[in-house]
């Protein structure tokens, strides 16, 4: 019986240690921070928040998509991270993402938009990083050309640019 208690204790310690390791698996940013994520997240690297530089965002799994937008001319190539992948990487469990821009403009994006093939967090357009003057450092876009439902005012309104912070709402 004592051996069973010791084994259970060792397994519980391993589970607790693994959970603690996962909660701090995100390395600290080494370059300029482009995005702060706070709120209902389980993976952090700064006082209960997750701070991302460009390399950390790319490390989530950078992808490219091509789409037209109502703000640009012609098909654009965006490089960035699917919002779905960001939410998975941070263990997000909330109901919505309050996305806020450099000028404090904010929109709420339902977590339901963070699905494969859905909302996309772009950090480059047509092969170039986006400056604040050019809708950067980050721009939430949708694959507008991939599904007619994304060509609607509700998705255009959620397409916040100059994004620099996200608060995950409960």
Automatic annotation (TrEMBL):
InterPro entries: OxRdtase_Mopterin-bd_dom, OxRdtase_Mopterin-bd_sf. Pfam families: Oxidored_molyb. SUPFAM superfamilies: Oxidoreductase molybdopterin-binding domain (SSF56524). Keywords: Signal. Gene3D superfamilies: Oxidoreductase, molybdopterin-binding domain (3.90.420.10). Residues 74-143 form the Oxidoreductase molybdopterin-binding domain. Residues 1-23 form the signal peptide. It comes from the Bacteria. This is Oxidoreductase molybdopterin binding domain protein. It comes from Tropicibacter naphthalenivorans.
